[in-house]
Amino acid sequence: MVRAHYAAAGVQVMVEQMPIFGGYAGGLEATTIVDVATTLNTFVMMQGTWHLDGPIHVRWGITTAREALAVAGHAARAIEDHTHLILGNQYYTLAGPCTRMCLLETAAQAITDTVSGREILSGVAALKGVNTNMFTAMEARMMGEAAHAAAGMDVHEANILLDKLIGMYEKNYKTAPTGKSFEECYDVKKLQPTDEYVGVYEEAVEVLRELGLTYWDK
């Protein structure tokens, strides 16, 4: 009845689902199949307007793990190659705001989503999205700028870059920095990031430059 009401009212319907790598679906291939199936279910059974994905790692609870990114990339590319459906992905990093790790995690997912054809990026929920005030606009800025930087990139080229980028932060999963709350890394009156966070952001940008992304050189 609710869905019938939405259809009659012309409401734009987003359906969300987060397949769990290492959960009931199993490993990489099986989780990817589940991801594709549930994405298609959004449009076939739910009559959704667009689908919000979010493959997540059962151990770490994040979407930026190597395996979660592989699921997201394969699933999106398969659907984009054969349909005109609108796909999105949500962002859950392990590290918190005002840390280089958080920004590099974000960039890795933005690159993956862009080269695999997703139209919508939804984030960023830093520190796994489970703590109050632990997200800021700077993470969203990295999401957007990294996506622009990867636009038009060859998939093979992107995979080589991602392998290096993910390798920089995945070794720190057990000691991921908590970072700082919104109030600690932003001027809450001016709604501007602190000089410290701007510096951290520039450090992350330099890492991405060294990996071959030239967006920030324009």
How would you describe the overall organization of this protein?
The chain is an alpha/beta fold. The protein has a single domain (2-213), classed as Monomethylamine methyltransferase MtmB (TIM Barrel, Alpha-Beta Barrel), CATH 3.20.20. Helices cover 48% and strands 12% of the residues. It is built from 8 helices and 8 strands. The strands form 3 sheets. The chain has a 4-stranded parallel sheet. It has a two-stranded parallel sheet with strand order 2-4. Helix 2 (28-44) crosses helix 3 (66-80), helix 3 (66-80) runs parallel beside helix 4 (100-115) and helix 4 (100-115) crosses helix 5 (137-150). It is globular. The model has no long low-confidence stretch (mean pLDDT 95).
A few lines on this structure:
It is built from 8 helices and 8 strands; from the N terminus they run H-E-E-H-E-E-H-E-H-E-H-H-H-E-E-H.
Along the chain, the helix and strand elements come as: HEEHEEHEHEHHHEEH
Going by CATH, the homologous superfamily would be: Monomethylamine methyltransferase MtmB
The tally of structural domains comes to 1
Largest sheet: 4 strands, parallel
Structural class: alpha/beta
Kindly provide the name of the CATH class. Alpha Beta
Question: Percent of residues in beta strands?
Answer: 5-15%
Q: What share of the residues lie within helices?
A: 40-55%
Mean pLDDT equals 95
Count the beta strands. 8
Low-confidence stretches: none
- Spatial order of the strands in the main sheet? 1-3-5-6
- Termini gap: 52 Å
